[in-house]
Specification:
The protein is mainly α. Helix 2 crosses helix 10, helix 4 runs antiparallel to helix 7 and helix 5 packs across helix 7. The longest helix has 36 residues. It is extended.
Length: 287
């Protein structure tokens, strides 16, 4: 009987180029074009999100998304997130996207409370005392989704200078850009995942800076985002190197103290050297 094969058997000897080559080319092309749908299907797809029966690939790119949400409203939403939640829980584990989608469905199904999450009510009229971690994340996401509605549901006279420029672009040079067309459920779910990813990045950067500024703060084990884990690992390496250096210094100091306690070499030579005394009367000096 022949020996065991070292590679999985295949008719083309492990090189199914006609099939895999075409699939790989599609993936590479999608990545090069930064198609948002590809990222959602890879990382954001969840049973609690959009149904596969109504999903369609969106036509806009991550670049379109990033430019649109580089705006004063996004900065204001981030500041609210920090003030209401992150400053009080700087090292708490971030929710997973699945946890967000479950709570998103709950919030989207409660019309009476939905406006509390979209910045439609004044802040002093929204009771956040009972909000969970997920509530604060969802408030950021839905506030940003609602912000985009200014393109179609607000008049130019109601907009500030920056928003007015966004509105003017959407109906002029941006008219051919798929990002500025009417959105359906696919567009919104894709954008909500990317907003979750953006907030995760901002939160990680905040937490890493917090750990650097407060090295005495103990970091909980488990459930830490990889970005924070890298910082924790770096700190552990530094502490291990410091402990090793402390031990080397201690050993060197101990060796030096023992050396100082011993007689110097010239004294030891005199101490062990046979001494010669002149013979006394009636004695001989043994040499």
């Amino acid at each position: 009987m022949a020996g065991f094969p070292t590679a999985p058997p295949s008719l083309s000897n492990g090189d199914p180029a006609p099939f895999w080559g075409a699939l790989e080319n599609n993936i590479i092309a999608g990545l090069e074009e930064s198609i948002a749908s590809l990222y959602f299907r890879c990382y954001g797809w969840d049973d609690n999100a959009i149904s596969s029966e109504i999903w369609r690939d969106v036509e806009w790119t991550i670049g379109d998304f990033a430019i649109f949400y580089d705006c004063p409203e996004a900065e204001a939403a981030w500041e609210t997130f920090v003030k209401d939640y992150l400053s009080q829980n700087p090292i708490e584990r971030s929710p997973e996207w699945r946890e967000i989608t479950i709570e998103l469905q709950r919030v989207l199904g409660d019309v009476d409370r939905l406006q509390d999450y979209t910045n439609m009510h004044p802040a002093d009229q929204v009771e956040k005392g009972f909000w969970t971690r997920e509530d604060h994340w969802i408030a950021y996401i839905l506030r940003m989704i609602n912000y985009r509605s200014i393109i179609y549901h607000a008049g130019p006279e109601d907009l500030g200078d920056f928003e007015h420029r966004v509105w003017a672009y959407a109906f002029s040079f941006g008219a051919d850009n798929p990002f500025y067309r009417q959105w359906d459920a696919s567009d919104k779910w894709c954008a909500m995942y990317l907003l979750y990813a953006k907030l995760s990045f901002l939160r990680d950067s905040y937490t890493v800076k917090y750990l650097l500024d407060n090295p005495h703060i103990p970091v909980p084990e488990g459930g830490i985002h990889p970005v924070v884990t890298d910082e924790v690992r770096r700190r552990e390496v530094e502490e291990a190197e410091q402990r090793m250096q402390d031990w080397i210094n201690f050993r060197n100091n101990l060796t030096g103290e023992n050396y100082l306690r011993r007689p110097p070499p010239w004294y030891r030579r005199l101490w062990y050297r046979p001494m010669w005394f002149p013979p006394q009367d009636g004695q001989q000096n043994n040499q």
